[in-house]
Amino acid sequence: MARVEVLLPQWGMGMSEGTVATWLKNVGDSVAEDEPLAEVEAEKVEETLESPASGVLAEIVVPEGETVEVRAVLAYIETA
């Protein structure tokens, strides 16, 4: 079983941070690759964070309402 990091991507050139607005999945939920995981507010625009892999959402590192820098680990997915 591998553990995949879910990172905050950089959606725009000037983007340096983002705020997790809403998690769309809970720890223990199954997720498919490219499935929406969370809504993130960045540069006054809300973007949908998609899962980088299929598996189970094992851990949420950044709770809703918290702001982190680009490339920060937001969560972990365990793959089969």
List the helices and strands and how they pair.
Blueprint: E1 2-7, E2 17-23, E3 30-31, E4 36-42, E5 45-50, E6 55-60, E7 67-69, E8 73-79
Antiparallel strand pairs: 1-8, 2-4, 2-7, 3-6, 4-5, 6-8
CATH class, named: Mainly Beta
Radius of gyration over C-alpha positions, nearest whole angstrom: 12 Å
CATH overall fold name: OB fold (Dihydrolipoamide Acetyltransferase, E2P)
Distance between termini? 5 Å
Low-confidence stretches: none
InterPro entries: 2-oxoacid_DH_E2_comp, Biotin_lipoyl, Single_hybrid_motif
GO molecular function, one term: acetyltransferase activity
Protein name: Biotin attachment protein
Keywords: Acyltransferase, Transferase
Characterization of the model:
0% of the residues lie in helices and 55% in strands. A hairpin with a 2-residue loop joins strand 4 (36-42) and strand 5 (45-50). The radius of gyration is 12 Å and the shape is elongated. It has no helices and 8 strands. It has one domain: RNA polymerase II/Efflux pump adaptor protein, barrel-sandwich hybrid domain (OB fold (Dihydrolipoamide Acetyltransferase, E2P), Beta Barrel), CATH 2.40.50. InterPro entries: 2-oxoacid_DH_E2_comp, Biotin_lipoyl, Single_hybrid_motif. Residues 3-78 form the Lipoyl-binding domain.
